[in-house]
Amino acid sequence: MTIGVSGASGQLGRGVADRLLERVEPGEIVLVTRAPDGLDDYRQRGVDVRRGDFDDADSLREAYRGVDRLLLISGVDVGRRIAQHSSAVDLAKEAGVSHVAYTGIVNPSEANTAAVTPEHRGTEEALRASGLAWTMLRNGIYADLTIDALLQSIAAGRHVYNSGEGRISYVARADCAAAAAAVLTGAGHENRSYDVTGPEALSGAALAQLASEVAGKPVEAGSVDDDAFVAILVEYAGLPEPVAQFLASFGRAARDGQLDTVSDGVEQLTGRPPQSFRELLETAYARAGAPA
Q1: Under-70 pLDDT residues of the chain
Q2: Can you list the domains of the chain with their CATH numbers?
Q3: DSSP string, 92-122
């Protein structure tokens, strides 16, 4: 059996590749990316690295050829991903792929106002309609990204958020990678959906409290509305307003209770519990050069 990872040069893709190498021989792995030179380290280990671009159908058709199971990691071109992903699914079927796993978001319903939700929902619909076996890996919000921001909050002494009292079940990217590798190498995952989340859902105030405890100094919880949050991201983080609005949509979804799903998906798939936000923050804080 040959296992493909589409979108393999990103952090999640590399994490999946590393987990696959613990389970199968390098020659059974195909890594597909727009920038194959960036995966030379895997090629040197015997992995088949192929060029594949969502905007180049011929490249994907060739890249997917001979692959039995494919992980389709969602692309980065927000606003274009339904068309890109749908084309990738069609090309995978044409190339002979029999089973596609897709990395989406928890609760991809119309009620979820996170800006990425419609594209994830649209991709799931295309995959179900394809006639291929599918697995939906509905990942929670990456803890890794939030921890990067929280380290800055520790330095500033204040954690600003627009999620109100809403909670988010942050998950380590490494746990998402391990769950995906388990699906790609295991049996019985066809036509099933898995919520892949951390062990608890945390509010913005809870994150500020955790930051205070880990850093050993006060970190104020700064709850603001959407407009204030966007203004802060534009003025102090230097983000373009459309990007700031995009990020604010996740806080809005959390307030609506759309991102607080807590599941046993990681443990069910990998045999071990997901990492807690606290342990991830402690590790990141120590690596940043401050005592945990």
Answers
A1: 290-292
A2: 3-140+173-196 (3.40.50.720), 143-167+199-260+275-287 (3.90.25.10)
A3: HHHHT--EEEEEEES--STT---TTHHHHHH
